[in-house]
Amino acid sequence: MTTDFEQELAEMDERRFKALTGLSKQEFAQLLPAFAASHAEIRHENYEKNRAKRQRRPGAGQKGRLDTMRKKLYFVLYYLKNYPTFDTLGDRFSLDRSKACTNAHKLLPVLCRALAQLGVLPPRQFNSVEEMEAVLAHIEDLFIDATERPHHRPQDDEEQQEKYSGKKKQHTVKNTVISDARRVILFLGYTVSGHQHDYGLFKGEFPPELDWFKAFQVWVDLGYLGIKGDYIARAIHIPHKKPRKSKTNPDPQLTPEQKEENRHVSSIRVVVEHAIGGLKRFNILVVKFRNRIADFDDDVALVAAGLWNWKLSLQNTT
Predict the structure, then answer these.
(1) Which is nearest to 122 in space by CA: 310, 284, 248?
(2) pLDDT computed for residue 60 by the predictor
(3) What CA–CA distance (Å, rounded) separates 58 from 50?
(4) Lower CB density within 10 Å: C or N end of the chain?
């Protein structure tokens, strides 16, 4: 980082800024006030919590390298977008690797709160059908899929087995994603180990005993085979599965009509793939996840979803 960081940001072209942060300069500028307000709130809460043990007021003492809100927001976005090691991150921002680590874990909750206050974080669970219908009012079509991402190999044998994905042939974690036709992420399931099947995970989040989707049309892929028998909805759109090979049917094929229906379903359902692509604009959800702090893999997924929804919300208002 140059000594005149503000000048560096001002001179940075739009393409480079997007490549380094995942946001345009305008999106960054509009997010900054909410980030600053959240930072002030958390700082005040921590001060009140530890007031009896403190000897100095907030803001006293030596100033760090990240001494402005712009630097702090740029730092945490840079980390999410590029996912460097803490040695590399520290070198970029003239910090020791331990300080780079501390700042990344300290500033992510600030960004998460800012996105929550802007109303762009997706729900993580619904406690009732009525709550879900109220939150998703005026939405007719739900596009459902799961996203899987690589994770470091745990040292514990049981955890290794939990996180090993036979599908991906590596250790992974995954989340259920529900989007609308505009690619907005309406629901992000909690991060779970990669060995779980997409549909089994989905049934745990939306128990079939309740009529979760009676007010919606649902679009899924063949990973959710069986959904028509387990759930009631206005309509459930799922591709046709190719028949199994057998002695009586040695060359199983879908009919031309079934292939055309599959193409139709896929062409409409692709919006959830685009929503997942929006999540994975941030490299921290693409490369093998290295951090070992509990639930941090879930926190970054939620923040990435919020940033994607934030981008879409600004596009829809312009």
Answers:
(1) 310
(2) 59
(3) 11
(4) C
d(CA 29, CA 196): 40
**Distance between CA 89 and CA 76 in Å, rounded?**
10
Cα angle for residues 121, 125, 128 (degrees, 5° grid) = 125
Q: How far is CA 82 from CA 79, 85, 166, 310, in A?
A: 6, 9, 28, 19
φ, ψ for residue 168, nearest 5 deg:
-95, -10
Q: Could you give the angle at which helices 296-317 and 97-117 cross, rounded to 10 degrees?
A: 50
- The shares of helix, strand and coil residues in the chain, as percent rounded to the nearest 5, are 50, 15, 35
pTM, to two decimals = 0.91
pLDDT one-digit tens code per residue, 118-127:
999 999 999 9
Residues 6+ away with beta carbon under 8 Å from 62: none
Residues in the chain: 318
Helix or strand (DSSP H, E) at 186: strand 185-188
Q: Which residue has the tokens 């926190």?
A: 299
Average pLDDT over residues 255-281: 94
